[in-house]
Design brief:
heterodimer, A: about 650 residues, alpha/beta, Transcription Regulator spoIIAA, five-stranded parallel beta sheet, four-stranded parallel beta sheet, 21 helices, B: about 250 residues, alpha+beta, Alpha-Beta Plaits, 2 domains, two-stranded antiparallel sheet, 10 strands, about 25% helix, elongated
């Protein structure tokens, strides 16, 4: 007997949701209605996108990717986009009980009513939340089981550079910058729908859906995993990855947006009612990073560096502040103090907003690019935020391995100046489990922290200063020189961190001034499995999700045992296991699951950089030294775009407030 | 040597403004903290010249009073702000309303001319719509509730689980037919500390009045102010308005 024809439900579901909201925690996160949110006419749109950030609203709302793409799509004629976030388990349970489908917060439309469901993955730990949403939306979890009545599930974000673990669940993958790519996809879908008037009503079934996917794959702009077959060797390694249709290219390259000044988004930053992790407006001051830190996937896959100019940044900040009322402006990038005109920008903005309680922050600053004058400008008009630096490695030797060339002297000089200028607390971020690392490298973090406090006490003239050491476990990522590295097993990670903790605690003179924060090594193993996994890992994700895995980035929801049990069941008939994916070093000739996805980086250059890492060799930044042939610009036809522009931010004209009397 | 706050000039306030606002529709699910953040940002967007506190973290000077609980709608919430330059209350009303999201609606702004607004917020008039029950059922439940001499309910407080007696705070009430929404109870509740919440009245209606449980009720605060005869609730801003009228006679 054929299955019943699925009925596409378009109507908003707020009336159903409203009845259960009094029963859940923080209901405000599900109501939408943020200031500056767009409300585009549903019926007038030819292509409709739901854009999901697969984590809680409080984390997802500030995400710049989703805000930017929602706005870019809504500005396009005939295209509509609404946002969606993961629902907490308390609401999920009620939605299942009452048959409430997964919804967008903008219009409370069911996700199944859209042509496309875009999911942005900053981290692989959101995979299970995507499955929850698909399931609640009545969309088959497996792409192969969907018909033309279901949305195309489109994956983006940094994790999309190895989408293989979720290849069975997603239809389309976009690599790199999304601004132009989503418009391109919208055009193709609009044209296809115009040519196939019955599309979307389940009349065409899988065949019509397949022909749309072939059309998209044929543009070369996206990766459609279903059009590639993966062949395995008897020992479990990949033999090769082959297109199974002429429509699909052998390799798919990332998108790179050139001239960020032409794309000053978000123009309408969202102001949520609910409390979120970042209570500020954000301005992306540049994209990409060529510092060359070998552990950093973001720095590798977002090359080259493309700055926004001082003049455009000035306009974006002014526009954003007027439209939001935020008191803090986060100047985002992968290493914000590296902007060619950061000093002029900070001073110009501080002058403009003198007396207006506006503070500026640089969420990511390198020790060697930072100075106190800059810090003072950032906090001149508002609240003084804490200082965080990331030496990443405890010893000089390990910092050479990871190519984070910050010397201990640099660090001591910078933090001493900060303590001398009145800061009382400095946070230092490190990683544990880096390639070639020994216990000794990690124990040197304690020495470094002691030296920081010793020098800081002298500079501040008081014993009352603190330093917080925060440590995360290193997870090797695709498209980095460390993609071949063995991940450190969690037991050794934990043992190393315990030795470090004991060393800090045992210090009578300085121990109490040093705070120590770390997480156990087990979540990192699951992240490692999902980061460097292949298509077989999809079965592990499905097993774990069926067993209740949700919100894996949250320690209160994460269960290591559940994941290991799921992997054991799902990989029982395979010659591979979790260790094979995580703690195994790869050889140069091994086909990696993401080799057919092109980040622009030359594979031989990456391998050479990995060899240089093992030998302790360093590589410079191509912004200030000649090109070292990483491959990106040559191969993708891009180039570095940096200042200085020598533009000056002029004072803004004073306009009297309309509320003032007389 | 302790770090001293940065030496910023602290400008003293020259005027205080009292604001009545409503929390409507889906926005009733916003909490008081959500409203605080939204208001602070809206004041900046509306370019209201706020007075700020001194110290490391200067905060705008805003006094909140008796916020309705999360999930309850309201037509009568009150807040007072201090500004450093004189403002036109009508312009503040319009600009601030524009700067707040729809559903957080500014209804009235008056210049404070009298002391202590909070003391005048003696009681609240609530409308509680109970879906799926007949007016007669709700009326019977209300009679049972008013006949009781005490109405203990349990509430989780910072100090742990505590038992509160609702009965002394419940004043007059009446039941009307709410059509498709079921039946509605309009009740005056004295503003006591800790505040009696409308969902606790519903608990009493269910436990003491044997009202059947069903979909969550929907509560709206209709008025908040001085307590008059027969449970009537007056306008807490009337005194300020009268004082303004005396000082600035109509020309």
């Amino acid at each position: 007997m054929p299955d019943a024809v699925p009925v596409r439900r378009d109507a908003p579901v707020f009336d159903l949701l409203e009845r259960v909201l009094p029963l859940v925690s923080k209901p405000v996160q599900y109501i939408g209605g943020e200031l500056n949110a767009a409300h585009k006419d549903w019926d007038g749109a030819r292509v409709r996108w739901a854009l999901m950030y697969p984590d809680a609203y409080e984390v997802g709302l500030p995400n710049q990717g989703v805000q930017i793409l929602t706005e870019v799509l809504n500005e396009a004629e005939g295209v509509l986009a609404q946002r969606s976030y993961a629902v907490w388990p308390d609401l999920e349970r009620l939605m299942r009980e009452r048959g409430i489908p997964a919804f967008t917060v903008d219009g409370h439309r069911p996700l199944g009513a859209f042509d496309l469901l875009g999911v942005s993955f900053s981290t692989e730990l959101g995979y299970t939340n995507m499955l929850t949403s698909l399931d609640l939306a009545g969309i088959p979890l497996l792409a192969a089981e969907r018909t033309d009545a279901h949305p195309l599930v489109v994956m983006g974000g940094h994790a999309a550079f190895n989408p293989e673990p979720v290849a069975d669940f997603v239809d389309v993958v976009v690599l790199g910058d999304g601004e132009e790519a989503v418009l391109r996809i919208s055009d193709e879908v609009a044209a296809f729908k115009a040519e196939h008037p019955g599309f979307g009503e389940a009349t065409g079934g899988p065949a019509l859906r397949r022909s749309l996917l072939e059309r998209l794959a044929g543009t070369g702009a996206v990766y459609v995993p279903a059009f590639y077959d993966v062949e395995y060797l008897p020992d479990g390694r990949i033999g090769r990855v082959v297109p199974n249709t002429p429509a699909a290219p052998w390799r798919v390259a990332k998108h790179t947006l050139m001239d960020l000044d032409e794309w000053p988004y978000p123009r309408n930053p969202l102001v949520p009612l609910a409390e979120t992790v970042h209570e500020r407006m954000s301005v992306e001051i540049f994209r990409g990073c060529t510092r060359g830190c070998r552990f950093c996937q973001a720095g590798m896959i977002t090359r080259p560096v493309r700055e926004r100019s001082t003049a455009v940044l000035g306009e974006m900040v002014e526009n954003g502040l007027r439209r939001t009322g935020f008191e803090e402006v986060g100047m985002l990038s992968l290493s914000s103090a590296d902007h060619s005109e950061i000093a002029e920008l900070a001073k110009g903005l501080a002058d403009r907003y003198e007396g207006e309680q506006v503070s500026l922050s640089l969420p990511s600053t390198r020790v060697d690019a930072f100075n106190i004058q800059l810090a003072n400008e950032l906090s001149r008009n508002g609240r003084r935020s804490g200082l965080t630096f990331a030496p990443e490695g405890g010893s000089e030797r390990i910092r050479q391995v990871i190519n984070k060339m910050v010397t201990e002297d640099d660090l001591i000089r910078t933090v001493t100046a900060a303590y001398g200028a009145g800061w009382r607390q400095v946070k230092l971020y490190f990683m544990c489990g880096l390639p070639t690392e020994t216990d000794e490298d990690v124990l040197q973090i304690a020495d470094l922290a002691r030296n920081v406090i010793r020098a800081g006490r002298e500079a501040a003239g008081t014993r009352d200063i603190r330093c917080t050491v925060s440590i995360g476990g290193f997870v090797p990522k695709p498209h980095t020189p460390f993609q071949w590295a063995a991940q450190l097993d969690h037991a050794t990670t934990d043992a190393r961190l315990h030795r470090l903790r004991d060393a800090i605690r045992a210090d009578r003179e300085y121990g109490r001034a040093i705070g120590f924060r770390y997480h156990d090594g087990r979540p990192g193993i699951v992240e490692g499995l999902l980061s460097r996994g292949d298509r077989r890992v999809g079965r592990v994700i499905l097993e774990a999700w069926r067993d209740g895995a949700r919100f894996d980035g949250w320690s209160e929801h994460f269960s290591f045992e559940r994941w290991m049990a799921a992997a054991h069941r799902a990989l029982a008939d395979e010659p591979v296991d979790v260790d094979w994916y995580t703690t195994r070093e790869r050889q140069q000739n091994e086909v990696l699951p993401w080799d057919h996805l092109d980040s622009g980086l030359d594979r031989d250059w990456l391998w050479q950089d990995w060899q240089d890492a093992l030998a302790g060799g360093e590589v410079d930044d191509c912004r200030w030294t000649p090109c070292f042939d990483c491959g990106v610009c040559d191969h993708l036809g891009t180039q570095i775009q940096v200042g200085p522009t020598e533009a000056v931010l002029l004072p803004l004209p004073t306009v009297p407030a309309r509320v003032e009397a007389g | 040597m302790a770090r001293r706050p940065p030496e910023r000039e602290v400008v003293p306030p020259v005027q205080r403004l009292r604001i009545r606002y409503a929390k409507r529709g889906p926005l009733r699910f916003s909490s008081h903290r959500d409203f605080q953040r939204a208001l602070e940002r809206a004041l900046r967007r509306a370019r209201v010249p706020m007075a700020y506190s001194a110290g490391f973290s200067p905060h705008p000077r805003i006094s909140y009073a008796n916020a309705a609980p999360t999930g309850a709608a309201s037509e009568a919430e009150y807040v007072e702000i201090a500004v450093v330059r004189r403002c036109d209350p009508a312009a503040v009303r319009a600009e601030l309303d524009e700067a707040l999201p729809p559903g957080l609606d500014v209804l009235d702004v008056v210049e404070a001319r009298t002391p202590d607004l909070v003391a005048r917020l003696e009681a609240s008039r609530w409308r509680i719509e109970v879906p799926g029950v007949a007016p007669t059922q709700l009326a019977a439940a209300w009679s049972a509730v008013t006949a009781a001499s005490t109405l203990p309910v349990e509430r989780m407080m910072k100090q742990g689980l505590r038992t509160l007696d609702l009965r002394p705070a419940l004043l007059t009430g009446s039941v009307t037919d709410a059509g498709a929404l079921g039946a509605a109870l309009e009740v005056t509740i004295r503003n006591v500390t800790p505040t009696v919440r409308p969902d606790e009245v519903l608990v009493a209606l269910r436990e003491v009045g044997a009202l059947p449980t069903g979909d969550p009720a929907r509560a709206t605060r209709l008025a908040q102010g001085p307590l008059g005869a027969q449970g009537a609730v007056g306008d807490p801003l009337a005194a300020d308005r009268a004082a303004v009228a005396v000082q600035v006679p109509a020309s």
